[in-house]
Amino acid sequence: MIACDFDADSAAAMIVLRPNRSWTWRANTYFVGTLMTISLLIALAFTAQGFWMILPFTVLEISILTGCLFYCVRRTHTTEVLRMNREELIFERGIREPTQRFSFERYFARFFVEPARHPWYRKKIELKCRGKALEVGHFLNDEEKDQLVRELRHIIRKLDNEDFKA
Predict the structure, then answer these.
(1) pLDDT of residue 54
(2) What does the DSSP 8-state code read for residue 51?
(3) N-to-C CA span, the chain
(4) Are 73 and 25 in contact (CB under 8 A)?
(5) Tally of helices (H runs) and strands (E runs) in the chain
(6) ∠ at Cα 108 (103, 112), nearest 5°?
(7) Mean pLDDT for all residues in the chain
(8) Which residues contact 147 (CB under 8 A, 6 or more apart)?
């Protein structure tokens, strides 16, 4: 998902990038709860028949499944924020709050779009400045990356426009 905001008064722009989320956290907990219930009922039925070794492995399976699901859902909450004005470009990445923050002089910062080498691969958008390269929106699909490129071009044209210069 891409959300863009341009403030003409302060000549500043902000782009917020988030991955697509197919399910909510509540839907995921219902899914895990249903699988836990079914697995535990089957394991308890076998335990009642004397096959008690199934129960610890069922608990291990449920624990691993819950951990993997938590990891995947947490990754879908990654957010990237690009803030631009005439002098500076700030790139932030994090889940609840920015854990990574990079600041560049906008004059030296460049966006590069690397096309996909194969139809199975995705194109790549990189922010490069003075030897440092950062991939922007690695979780976006191709249509969203095309939209991001259009938005970046539009915002950069607006920021470079003579009407905003003091």
Answers:
(1) 93
(2) -
(3) 34
(4) yes
(5) 3, 8
(6) 90
(7) 90
(8) 2
- In the numeric block, the tokens 């879908």 are attached to 76
Q: Using H for helix, E for strand and C for coil, what is the string for 50-111?
A: CCCCHHHHHHHHHHHHHHHHHHHHHHCCCEEEEEECCCEEEEEEECCCEEEEEEEECCCCEE
- Partnered with residue 5 across adjacent β-strands are 14
Packing angle of the helix pair 54-75, 25-48 (nearest 10 deg): 170
What are 141's two structure tokens?
A: 């699909």
- What share of the chain in percent tops pLDDT 90? 61
- Contact (Cβ atoms closer than 8 angstroms) between residue 149 and residue 157: no
Work out the pLDDT band at 162, boundaries 50, 70, 90: low
- The pTM of the full predicted model, rounded to 2 decimals, is 0.78
Task: Please write the tens of the pLDDT for every residue from 127-160.
Answer: 999 889 999 999 998 899 999 999 999 998 888 8
CA atoms of 10 and 75, how far apart (whole Å)? 33
Structure tokens belonging to residue 110 = 């460049």
